[in-house]
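so i finally got all the pieces together for this one. its two components total, 526 residues if u count the protein bits. some of the lines might not be protein, just check the labels. i wanna see the whole assembly predicted at once instead of chain by chain like last time, that was a mess tbh
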Amino acid sequence: MTALPRALGSTGTGGSPTATDRLLSVLAAFDHEHPALCLTDISRRAGLSLTTAHRLVGALAEWGALERDESGVYHVGLRLWEIAALAPRGLALRQIALPYLEDLYEATHENVQLAVRDGSDVVYIEWLSGRSAVGVHIRVGARWPLHATGVGLALLAHGDPGFREAYCAGELASFTPHTITDPARLRRELAEVRRTGVAVSDRQITEDALSVAAPVRTADGSVAAAVSIVVPHADAQVPVLVPAVRVAARGISRALGWLPERA
Amino acid sequence: MTALPRALGSTGTGGSPTATDRLLSVLAAFDHEHPALCLTDISRRAGLSLTTAHRLVGALAEWGALERDESGVYHVGLRLWEIAALAPRGLALRQIALPYLEDLYEATHENVQLAVRDGSDVVYIEWLSGRSAVGVHIRVGARWPLHATGVGLALLAHGDPGFREAYCAGELASFTPHTITDPARLRRELAEVRRTGVAVSDRQITEDALSVAAPVRTADGSVAAAVSIVVPHADAQVPVLVPAVRVAARGISRALGWLPERA
């Protein structure tokens, strides 16, 4: 159930790659394992000739999408970052959420995250690191499958029912003996998340961490993101964390235009 | 001295735009004033025919660089944001700096910023908003000319001497009666910043705000960024803020591999 790697050089509907495909394949050559690449690496990873890679990398560098350091290695550039900061599900959402995440951090001093769904994964768009040394394998831009994280359970529980059922029926990757891999158990967990409004993921990614998550809603009531706190499993006080996480999630929802229904 | 707008559709060395130029012109159509665009807007702002814009926008949307909402409006997409998060001067630097910025925020509860230089501007790559209602016209991705901000003075003072002199000799934009517009005064200020290690910008952008900034160094000792705090001018306690800002800047510098020389 981990996300399939997207084809680097394919955006068209078949046939030979277009100029657009080739340019995007240069950008897609960069990822978390490869944040800095020389021209040869780019050409190999993008499946382009050195001549074509040289021409495209030159154009991207001139425009500011890539930056070349003294040693000739290319990095993603500040101009691409500035444009990407406009992504409503990236920095723009983060900007609205940040004061509430700061409040949650100040109230708890634990690891605080904001995540959205992309396909079968959660993508973390904000992460304030707490004082506890819990083994949190999270960074901004990191991905994990939905069923294994608190934020993922919150997003899956409140998302489209058709998508949810397809996800539950698919293969559920396992990371620890505690990861939910039984579809029936996952369905029960998700029903419980909908009932309580809170998702708890206990040692599903690492043996030492527990997360508590709550959904973030937009003006139309749909769930756009989830907030979570990750703490060491050993001394996790779930009943204490739940209200704090819920208050933060509701605060962000209000800032996004959501108005709670009168019960 | 404000940055010249970069030509939207030009990356080549003249002549008719290439396929690369056209694709980048679609991305460049999005900015802080235009974070959401319909196809017609994109075609007009990018200087492309509707047919060409339709084809390029389709390819970018399929790849995930753009996302289309229910109303047919396009936004910058999560996949572009994920790749842009790899920019060493964007989110990557921010990720290293964030714990120190959080500490500075907790110690002061004021507006805390991290900025880098791009051409004649500072670009804010992080901003934690404090409790004070000072009129801070800053957001992530925002730009201001170097001479008018604390972070800009810190970056200009410690940057390349040739660039510094060219900047001082250029036109210095004015925002308030307090903005430094006299080249001789700017040179004196910058010498003082180098001497003290701290830059103070007093009511240069708005009449009510004062900022205190310090440089962030990398392993080779060069200044890569600056940290600042912005407070209301009326009750600014500069001597109190200076040590806190300097400690945060040195902490980030150490995390970037800088080792202070023995004096």
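Chain A touches chain B through 58 residues (CB under 8 Å).
The domain at 19-84 of chain A is CATH 1.10.10.10 (Arc Repressor Mutant, subunit A).
anyway lmk what u think
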